[in-house]
C-alpha cells in the first residue's frame, strides 16, 4: 500500500461544498460574538472610564471568565442553549471578546490626553458631543488593536466547539483524527489561519482608513 | 470688561486656591496674572469660563454674572489657549481651527475659509492646513492654538501659560506675534504666566498673585518695576528691575547729534581737523556701516578703506531707552545710533545724552523704593 499523502486533493474537490459550509459557519460563530462583544463593551468601557472604581471589578470579573476553559463553558451551556447549536459556542465567545474589548475601550478613552479633553471643554463642547467627536475618535486606534486580538482569538476558539458538536472548521480536525486521515486536518488548519490573517488584515486596513492621523504618527 | 468681585475658590479637599480676589480686567487690554506655582492662576482663569465654578463671590462679564450663562454657550464666546496647545490629534489643522465655528453651526465652507484666514493671520504657511497636529513643531502648534481660539472672533481670550513649553527664541517670536495681533484685534486678554519677564513684556496691566490666591499687586509694568508693593513682589520681580524698567521708557527723549556722520566715500583728508573722537560712517542710503576712530584715520583714501568698529542702533519712535542703552554697549564709541524704520541714520545719542536721560528717569522714580 502506498504511503498516505499529506493532502489528497481529490478529497478536497469532492468535499468542497461541505468545507465551504463549515467555513461560513466558522466565520459567523467567530465574528458575531466579536461584534456583539464590542457593542456591549462600548457602554461598559465608557462607564469604566467615567467611574474609575467600576473599572477594576469589571476587569476582574472579565479576567476570571477569560480564564475559564472554553470546553468546560461549552459543556455547562449545553442544557441551556442546546447541543451542537451556534449559541452554545457564541455565548462564551462573546464573553471572551468582552474580556478583551472592555479594557481596550477604557484604555482608548484614557489615552485621550488631558489637555485635549480640557481644550474641548474650554471650546464649548457639550459632554455628549465631546464624547462622540473627540474622545471616541481618539480612542479608535486602541480599540481597533483590541478588536484584532479579539477577532483572531475568537476565530481560533470556535474550533473547540467541535467537541460539543458545533465547531465550524474544527469539525475537520475531529473527522481527520477519528479516521487517521490528514487531509481534513491540514485543510482545517490552513483555512483557520487564513481566516485569522484575513480578519486581521481587514482590521489593519480599517485602521489605516479610519485613523490616518495615527498611522502617520507611527511612521513619522 | 471682566470683573472679579470677592471671588473665592475652595476645592473639595479644603484647599483655598483663590481667596477673595477682586480686580477688573479692562476691555481691549492684556491683563497678566503672574505668580509662583500653585498661587491660583489657572484656577482664577478657569473660573471665568466656568471650567471651574467659584465657591464665593462673582465674576461678571460686561456686567453679567457668568453663573447665569450656560457653560457651553459661555465658552464658545471665550477663546482659550493652553500650554500644550491641546489640539485635536485626529483633526487636520484647518478643522482644528474651525472647531468653534463648527460648534456654532457655521456651514463647513465658511468655517474653513475663516480658519484659513486665521492661519494666515497667525503667520502660518497655508500648506499646514491639511496636516495633522503631530506634523507641526511645538511653536507652530501653539500658533494653531491661538488661531483656533480666535476663530469665532470672541471678544475675550484666556491664555494659560501658552508659550512656556517652547524654546526661548520661539517664545519671543510668539510673544511679538501676540502683541502684533492684539494691536489689530484689541481683544480683552487674560494671560497667565509664572515668568515675570513675559508678564511685563505683554501686560498692559500685571496682577501679581501670592500663594493662597491673594492679590499682591495690580499695576502697569513700569509702576510694578518701580514701586513693588511689598517684599514678596520685590523678590518675585527679581534682579535688574532698574534696567528692565527702561523697557517702558521711550528712547525718543534722547538728545541726538546729527553732526557725527560721514559718507563712506568722503576723502579722509577733509576729516583731519575734527575734534570728535568717533564718527559714524554711512553708505549712500545714509545707513550705518560702522564707527571710525578719528585717531585711526589713514593719511589718504576714504573711510571705506579702514576697518570699521562695530555699532548698535535703536529705532527712533519705536524702541525703548533700554534698547538705546543696549546699543551703546555694542560699540567702542559708547554711543548709540538712532535710525528710522528703514534703517537710515537720524542721529547719534552720545553717552552724555544717555546720562542725562537716565538721570531723568531715575529722578522720576522718587524716593519710596529701596
Ligand atoms: N482639583 C483640585 N482639587 C484640589 N486642589 C486643587 C485642584 N486644582 C488645583 N488645586 C490646588 O489649588 C492651588 C492653585 O492651583 P492652580 O492650578 O490654580 O495654580 P497655578 O497658579 O495655575 O499653578 P501653576 O503655575 O503651577 O500652574 C494649588 O495649591 C493646587 O494644588
Ligand atoms: Mg496653572
Automatic annotation (TrEMBL), chain A:
Gene3D superfamilies, sorted: MetI-like
Database matches in InterPro entries: ABC_transp_perm/SBD (IPR051204), MetI-like (IPR000515), MetI-like_sf (IPR035906)
Keywords: Membrane, Transmembrane, Transmembrane helix, Transport
GO cellular component, one term: plasma membrane
Entry membrane topology: Multi-pass membrane protein
Transmembrane segment boundaries: 27-49, 61-83, 89-109, 138-165, 185-206
Keyword Membrane in record: yes
Keyword Membrane: yes
Chief place of localization: membrane
Subcellular location: Cell membrane; Membrane
Domain ABC transmembrane type-1: 23-203
GO biological-process terms attached to the record: glycine betaine transport; transmembrane transport
Family as reported in the entry's similarity comment: Belongs to the binding-protein-dependent transport system permease family.
Protein name (Swiss-Prot/TrEMBL): Osmoprotectant transport system permease protein
Organism name: Streptosporangium subroseum
Automatic annotation (TrEMBL), chain B:
Alphabetically ordered keywords of this record: ATP-binding, Nucleotide-binding, Transport
GO MF assignments: ABC-type quaternary ammonium compound transporting activity; ATP binding; ATP hydrolysis activity
Major enzyme class: translocase
Alphabetized SMART domains for the sequence: AAA (SM00382)
Pfam families cross-referenced by the UniProt entry: ABC_tran
Gene3D superfamilies in the cross-refs: P-loop containing nucleotide triphosphate hydrolases
Claim: 4Fe-4S is one of the keywords in the record: no
Entry superkingdom: Bacteria
Enzyme Commission code(s) on record: 7.6.2.9
Keyword Nucleotide-binding appears in the UniProt entry: yes
Ranges where the ABC transporter domain occurs: 2-237
InterPro entries: AAA+_ATPase (IPR003593), ABC_transporter-like_ATP-bd (IPR003439), ABC_transporter-like_CS (IPR017871), CBS_dom_sf (IPR046342), P-loop_NTPase (IPR027417)
PANTHER family: OSMOPROTECTANT IMPORT ATP-BINDING PROTEIN OSMV (PTHR43117:SF4)
UniProt family annotation: Belongs to the ABC transporter superfamily.
Protein name per UniProt: ABC-type quaternary amine transporter
Amino acid at each position: 500500500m502506498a504511503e498516505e499523502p499529506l493532502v489528497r486533493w481529490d478529497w478536497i474537490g469532492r468535499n468542497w461544498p461541505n468545507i465551504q459550509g463549515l467555513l461560513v459557519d466558522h466565520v459567523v460563530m467567530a465574528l458575531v460574538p466579536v461584534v456583539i462583544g464590542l457593542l456591549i463593551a462600548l457602554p461598559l468601557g465608557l462607564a469604566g472610564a467615567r467611574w474609575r472604581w467600576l473599572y477594576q471589578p469589571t476587569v476582574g470579573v472579565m479576567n476570571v471568565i477569560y480564564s475559564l476553559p472554553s470546553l468546560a463553558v461549552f459543556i455547562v451551556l449545553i442544557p441551556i442553549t442546546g447541543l451542537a447549536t451556534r449559541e452554545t459556542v457564541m455565548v462564551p465567545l462573546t464573553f471572551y471578546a468582552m474580556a478583551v474589548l472592555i479594557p481596550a475601550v477604557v484604555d482608548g478613552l484614557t489615552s485621550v490626553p488631558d489637555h485635549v479633553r480640557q481644550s474641548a471643554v474650554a471650546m464649548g463642547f457639550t459632554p455628549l458631543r465631546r464624547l462622540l467627536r473627540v474622545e471616541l475618535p481618539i480612542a479608535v486606534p486602541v480599540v481597533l488593536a483590541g478588536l484584532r486580538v479579539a477577532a483572531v482569538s475568537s476565530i481560533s476558539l470556535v474550533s473547540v466547539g467541535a467537541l460539543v458538536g458545533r465547531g465550524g472548521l474544527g469539525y475537520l480536525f475531529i473527522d481527520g483524527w477519528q479516521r487517521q486521515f490528514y487531509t481534513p486536518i491540514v485543510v482545517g488548519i490552513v483555512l483557520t489561519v487564513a481566516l485569522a490573517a484575513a480578519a486581521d488584515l481587514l482590521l489593519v486596513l480599517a485602521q489605516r482608513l479610519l485613523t490616518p492621523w495615527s498611522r502617520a504618527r507611527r511612521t513619522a | 470688561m471682566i470683573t472679579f468681585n470677592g471671588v473665592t475658590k475652595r476645592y473639595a479637599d479644603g484647599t483655598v486656591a483663590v481667596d477673595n480676589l477682586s480686580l477688573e480686567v479692562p476691555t481691549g487690554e492684556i491683563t497678566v496674572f503672574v505668580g509662583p506655582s500653585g498661587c491660583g492662576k489657572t484656577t482664577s482663569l478657569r473660573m471665568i469660563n466656568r471650567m471651574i465654578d467659584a465657591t464665593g463671590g462673582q465674576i461678571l462679564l460686561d456686567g453679567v454674572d457668568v453663573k447665569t450663562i450656560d457653560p457651553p454657550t459661555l465658552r464658545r464666546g471665550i477663546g482659550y489657549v493652553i500650554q500644550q496647545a491641546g489640539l485635536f490629534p485626529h483633526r487636520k489643522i484647518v478643522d482644528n481651527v474651525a472647531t468653534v465655528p463648527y460648534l456654532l453651526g457655521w456651514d463647513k465652507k465658511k468655517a474653513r475659509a475663516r480658519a484659513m484666514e486665521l492661519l494666515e493671520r497667525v503667520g502660518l504657511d497655508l500648506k499646514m492646513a491639511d496636516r495633522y497636529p503631530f506634523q507641526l513643531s511645538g511653536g507652530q502648534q501653539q500658533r494653531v492654538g491661538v488661531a483656533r481660539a480666535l476663530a469665532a472672533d470672541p471678544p475675550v481670550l484666556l491664555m494659560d501659560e501658552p508659550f512656556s513649553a517652547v524654546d526661548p527664541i520661539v517664545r519671543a517670536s510668539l510673544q511679538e506675534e501676540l502683541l502684533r495681533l492684539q494691536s489689530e484685534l484689541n481683544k480683552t486678554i487674560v494671560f497667565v504666566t509664572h515668568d515675570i519677564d513675559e508678564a511685563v513684556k505683554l501686560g498692559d496691566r500685571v496682577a501679581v498673585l501670592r500663594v493662597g490666591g491673594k492679590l499682591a499687586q495690580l499695576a502697569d509694568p513700569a509702576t510694578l518695576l518701580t514701586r513693588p508693593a511689598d517684599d514678596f513682589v520685590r523678590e518675585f520681580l527679581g534682579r535688574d528691575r532698574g534696567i528692565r524698567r527702561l523697557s517702558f521708557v521711550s528712547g525718543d527723549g534722547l538728545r541726538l547729534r546729527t553732526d557725527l556722520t560721514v559718507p563712506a566715500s568722503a576723502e579722509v583728508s577733509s576729516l583731519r581737523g575734527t575734534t570728535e573722537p568717533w564718527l559714524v560712517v554711512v553708505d549712500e542710503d545714509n545707513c550705518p556701516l560702522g564707527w571710525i576712530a578719528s585717531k585711526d584715520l589713514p593719511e589718504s583714501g576714504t573711510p571705506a578703506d579702514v576697518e570699521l568698529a562695530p555699532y548698535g542702533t535703536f529705532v527712533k519712535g519705536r524702541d525703548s531707552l533700554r534698547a538705546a542703552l543696549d546699543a551703546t554697549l555694542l560699540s567702542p564709541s559708547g554711543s548709540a545710533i538712532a535710525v528710522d524704520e528703514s534703517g537710515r541714520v537720524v542721529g547719534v545719542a552720545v553717552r552724555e545724552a544717555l546720562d542725562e536721560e537716565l538721570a531723568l528717569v531715575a529722578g522720576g522714580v522718587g524716593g519710596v523704593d529701596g
